[in-house]
Structures are given as structure tokens and as C-alpha cells.
UniProtKB/TrEMBL annotation:
The keyword Hydrolase applies. PANTHER family: HYDROLASE, PUTATIVE (AFU_ORTHOLOGUE AFUA_2G14860)-RELATED, MONOACYLGLYCEROL LIPASE. GO terms for molecular function: peptidase activity. One of its GO terms (biological process) is proteolysis. Coiled coil: none annotated. GO terms for cellular component: membrane. The lineage of its organism: Eukaryota, Fungi, Dikarya, Ascomycota, Pezizomycotina. Keywords: Hydrolase. This is AB hydrolase-1 domain-containing protein. Signal peptide: none annotated.
Length: 309
């Protein structure tokens, strides 16, 4: 795996003037390697540190572009924070990176953003990697709350969890309390209870809580998210990943995604929770590497015809 610990951070301006915090792992000046854009989850909380851990190992074969979504990390917290805008941001970054087609990867909420992009701009994708998602926002959110509240591994405040997953949080502190009280369920059960606090890739690094972004994502976007009837139109080779012990986005959701996308493969990690890249890193990398190799995705290097934005 290439060492990209010193890869430079760029501030890339979107068409509406918003600046996004962007990093490219495995950059080469001649763009001989194809582009892979990897999206993080947990809007208003997670950062590019998550996709760096999940997909950075591919930087010897791809230019791996990771970024803080608007409203997260060091990117501007200027809206809108809706599917149209997040899709446009991906398009801006694709053009900035001078790629006509690319591989798109997304985990957790990033999987929802990736699915939105895939049904709108499927012709731009030569591959799609989805980790921990579902097909219907309302059903998925309610299922997550139910699974969390019936879990014996945590004892969260029920009303606060409803606020978290319905996008009706009172404040940034309310957001922080809601996440911190359920952190153990994002990892698989361990033999020793002292190991039950392992850190999911979604929550790596310094956590900064922006409840406004979470409320928009789950209070406005999720109720309208339903891609069941559009999955059949996604033609890109697709890899769907999920942990057997994922309470937030259970196996049933990923199975529905894989069943709906014609050219897809489902991989269930039996010893993982919400984040296989953290729980079973070697196996996770093996599965993703095999998919990339078999589909020939790292051999393609199409470039954009237009100017970068």
C-alpha cells in the first residue's frame, strides 16, 4: 500500500462558492491512474478520515479522492445540505480531478449519497462500492431506532435516540449525547467486555457535532429517500458490504440493495459491525481488492473532455 500520510490538503471551490476540504491519495501528475471518490458517513460529524481508513489502501492503483462533505470537518458549513447539492459537489470534484468516469464508494450515510448519485449520473460510474445502507429512509431510520433500543449492549435514552434518527435534535450537545451513548453498538460483540468500545471508522479523529446538518440529513432528506424502483437502472458493477452485527444498517437493507442492482455482489462480514474496515481490516481489504481486480476497474483511466470547475 502506498504511503500517502503527507498528501496535501486542497481547498476546492464548488460552483456556489463553498470551499471543500479535499485530499487525493496516490495522486500522479499525468493522471495515469483512474479516479475513485470515497464518501464519508455521519453528516455533521464524520470527516475524510473515515474513507482514508476504508479506501486509502487502494492509492497504489487509484487516485483516491476523499473530502469533508459540506457541513463536516474543515469544509464550509454553508448549505443547502440536500441530495441535489451533495450530488453537484461530487460532480464538481469529478471535473476538478479531470475524470470522465470514476469509481464511487460510500459508507453509511455516504452510501445514501452514492446511491443518489448513481441513479442520477450512472453513466459517469465504472464501479460502485456501498457499505452499510438501506433503500428506504423512513423504514431504515425506524429500524435503526428499534434495533438500538432492544440491544442489550447499550441503555440509551429512548427519546433522544428518536430525535437523533428523526432529525429533531435540540442542540449540538443533544447530538453528542445521542452518539456517545450508543458507540458500542457500532462494533461487533467482543469476547471481553473491555474490548467492546473499539472505534468505528465513522468516528475516527476529533469529533465535532453539528446538529443542524444531522437534522437536515435525517429530518428532511431521509423521509424522501427511496431508491427501490431505481436500483434496476444502476448498470455499474457494484459491491455491497455489510457487517453481520450492524444494528444501524442491518444485513436486510444491504441485501435489498444487492438484489435490486443487476450487476452486484453482496459481501457479509460475519465478525463485523457497522464498519468492516475497522473490525476486520484484512478481510475488508481483500474483498474490495478482489472486486477491483476482477472488474478491471484499476486498469481504466478515462479523462474529462471539459475544463475543471
Amino acid at each position: 500500500m502506498a504511503d500517502d500520510s503527507t498528501a496535501a490538503i486542497s481547498k476546492v471551490q464548488m460552483d456556489d462558492g463553498v470551499q471543500l476540504n479535499v485530499k487525493i491519495l496516490g495522486e500522479d501528475s499525468m493522471h495515469t491512474k483512474p479516479l475513485l471518490i470515497a464518501l464519508h458517513g455521519a453528516p455533521g460529524l464524520s470527516t475524510l478520515a473515515e474513507p482514508v481508513e476504508s479506501f486509502g489502501f487502494l492509492s497504489d492503483r487509484f487516485r483516491v479522492l476523499v473530502y469533508d462533505a459540506r457541513g463536516s470537518g474543515d469544509s464550509d458549513s454553508i448549505g443547502p445540505f440536500d441530495p441535489d447539492r451533495w450530488t453537484k459537489d461530487i460532480e464538481n470534484l469529478r471535473m476538478w480531478a479531470s475524470a470522465d468516469k470514476f469509481v464511487l464508494a460510500g459508507g453509511s450515510y455516504g452510501a445514501f449519497v452514492a446511491l443518489d448519485y448513481a441513479v442520477r449520473h450512472g453513466d459517469r460510474l465504472c464501479g460502485l462500492i456501498l457499505r452499510a445502507g438501506w433503500t428506504v429512509g423512513k423504514v431504515g431510520s425506524m429500524t435503526a431506532v428499534a434495533n438500538i433500543l432492544k440491544s442489550k449492549r447499550v441503555k440509551p435514552d429512548a427519546a433522544r435516540q428518536v430525535r437523533l434518527w428523526s432529525g429533531t435534535l435540540h442542540s449540538d450537545k443533544d447530538f453528542e449525547d445521542a452518539i456517545m451513548e450508543i458507540l458500542p453498538i457500532y462494533s461487533p460483540p467482543r469476547v471481553s467486555s473491555s474490548d467492546d468500545q473499539s472505534e468505528s471508522a465513522d468516528f475516527k479523529g476529533t469529533l465535532i457535532f453539528h446538529s443542524k446538518i444531522q437534522n437536515t440529513a435525517f429530518g428532511e432528506n431521509m423521509p424522501r429517500f427511496d431508491v427501490r424502483n431505481q436500483l434496476q437502472d444502476i448498470k455499474a458493477p457494484t459491491l455491497v458490504l455489510v457487517g453481520r452485527h450492524d444494528y444501524a444498517t442491518p444485513v436486510s437493507g444491504s441485501k435489498e440493495i444487492a438484489d435490486g442492482i443487476p450487476n452486484s455482489r453482496l459481501e457479509i462480514f460475519e465478525n463485523s459491525g457497522h464498519s468492516p474496515s475497522s473490525d476486520v481490516p484484512e478481510r475488508s481489504r481483500e474483498v474490495v481488492s478482489y472486486f477491483v481486480k476482477v472488474r478491471g476497474l484499476s486498469k481504466r483511466s478515462p479523462k474529462a473532455n471539459g475544463d475543471a470547475t
